[in-house]
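Training component of the fellowship. As part of building independent skills, the fellow (R.M.) carried out the full modelling exercise for a liganded target. The chosen ligand was pyridoxal-5'-phosphate. The inputs are recorded below so that the supervisory panel can assess the work.
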Amino acid sequence: MSFHISPASRLEVVKEYYFSTKLKQIAALKASGIPVLNLGIGSPDLAPSDATIQALVESAQKKENHAYQAYQGIPALRTAFANFYQKHYQVNLDPNGEILPLIGSKEGIMHIAMAYLEKGDITLIPNPGYPTYQAACALTGAEVQSYELTEANGWLPDLVELAKRDLSRVKIMWVNYPHMPTGAQANVAFFEKLRDFALTHSILLVNDNPYSFILNQHPNSMLSIPGMKEVAIELNSLSKSHNMAGWRIGAVLGQQKFLAPILTFKSNMDSGMFLPLQEAAVKALESNEVWFAQQNKIYAARQKVVFQLMDLLECSYDPNQSGMFVWAKVPSKYKDGYELSDKILDENAVFITPGGIFGSQGNAYIRISLCAPISLFETAIQRIKTQSNGI
Ligand SMILES: Cc1ncc(COP(=O)(O)O)c(C=O)c1O
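Fellow's submitted model of the complex:
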């Protein structure tokens, strides 16, 4: 008899992350000699600022900088986040209590879910939306209900429709504006309605805000809405805005009473970030408008070429979308985005993310990441033009 240990049944509610399996498939294709172009993943290919890297190097060279760090991050990092929120979003936050640095906002989603949700609770997640909301919340034993977003409604939740549900057990509603994967933005009027909805139904809002600086004319924090801090916390991250995805630096921000349970959980699960990362993050957070303008110039040029690629695929899209992706609707001759994605991978060795991985409301869509040089998109266009069995 072979030795067998069964995994915990709680894992039955999640599958291996889509990109974890897809990247293995792409690596296998590449190993077999097929030069796959990966237009799928939102991992910035650009570098952090020189000042950030220099700060990392200088700090790492100091022998005394390699010890464990405080669970709440160094005061300088919390102050840097506070200054960043004040300067860019006009939000006042107390560095002593209203800012908790995180090893990326992805881990923060799990920490928040574990700190607040349990069996018997309901949590609301966007469909389409970032898949980690579903996975993290389902692992807590809570019931995960999606709220449908539609193109017709500007990818905003229909709060009137949502209020018709029994919301008595709903504890947390996850929102994410600017929205991934659709690139939709929410305006102040919507956030005000959302605040009132949360107050009426006693729901804690969690806004996941990693994309506010990418191709967005008006970077905003939901916490800037008057009264929002009463009912909401926000996640932010240096992964996309500062090209630091591999560094794993983010923060959860909001009233101390909301952050305290998150720290209780987090401090039992991980430890403070490596000090040189924190010191370098302080430098990154000091980046000014010139830095963001430089990044956006590059993303805007890439977006233009990706729009051409979408035109070639006969997909339709909103030219004003934010974030580091282009989200587009596939023509009706395809069953869904999966069919088009499979066809392009098979015929042209180009990987494009099918929108359905973000939820059923994304089925008719595909998503292309802007995290690649223009030459890669041009090569993809050439391949599709010359090697397809009919688009
Ligand atoms: C909407 C959204 N939230 C959170 C994350 C995770 O970001 P981080 O690198 O901060 O964990 C991502 C990454 O793709 C994302 O798209």
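The panel noted the following from the submitted structure. The chain has two domains: 9-47+289-386, 67-284. The radius of gyration is 21 Å.
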